[in-house]
Amino acid sequence: MDSKIKIxxxxxxxxxxxxEKCLQKNGLKCEILSVSKSQNRPxxxxxxxxxxxxxxxxxxxxxxxxxxxxxxxxxxxGEQGTIPEEKxxxxxxxxxDVGSTKTNICTRADELGLENFVGGHPMxxxxxxGYESSFSELFGGCTWILTESSKKTELLEQVIKKDLGAxxxxxxxxxxxDRSAAAVSHLPLILSLGLGNLLNGIPQAKQIVGPGFKGMTxxxxxxxxxxxxxxxxxxxNIKEVWKIYKESIDSFLEISNxxxxxxxxxxxxxxx
Length: 272
Ligand code: NAP
Hints:
47% of the residues lie in helices and 12% in strands. It has eight helices and eight strands.
């Protein structure tokens, strides 16, 4: 960053807290204003009207509510006819979020007429939650999805790559994002829940759980509020990729013994 910019963060949980910690560590030339109940920060959303970038980092329902609040603040500021357009609330702010699904949030932003909103989703995380579990290296080497790349996202893209350490930015429309995230993120979550649930049906198996099962059920131990939101918002896409996955499992089980090694190797190749 060449000159001092102002960054707002709303919600200091795992993701928001990590953004703040990382910027504090690396983004020496930025001023950070964070809104956080749990961390008793002195700011409210209405104090962030002149930031350059605003990260909304709460649960998805909260993000939608905050978009509504922002739209109202903008409307009220416009009603005070004496304020020039460029000085109105959030006039120079690029608003973004980190929610795990995008269609619901981007649609709401569109409905509210928030032209300065661009959806975002860092493909980073852990099964932990809250500020205490956040850390400055969380985004190092991750892919960060944005729903748009244009002149207005230049500064945001710079911050994501240079200051937060993402290795790449992938631009994807919300619908493609949700379908893709269903395959690589949300189905794994459901599979992890389903696998964990197997232990309710076969309790004696719990005694012999090893690292493979532990690894594959790691996601099931995560944040249930976020898991619920993901399933509710992206259920149809998850169902669709589950169908493809199920067919793939079924076909694996039907492969003749002689062809199994070849098939396994073809999967290993696609994973490289
Ligand atoms: P988290 O650790 O639970 O933090 C969420 C924060 O949001 C809380 O610490 C709280 O911040 C605020 N919040 C929670 N409930 C709220 C409410 N009802 N009203 C207002 N604020 C509320 O969750 P997270 O893992 O950081 O996830 C945040 C967002 O990132 C979600 O939208 C999720 O889909 C997305 N995401 C998560 C991951 C992941 O692996 N966890 C990965 C990518 C994207 P304060 O107490 O500071 O106000």
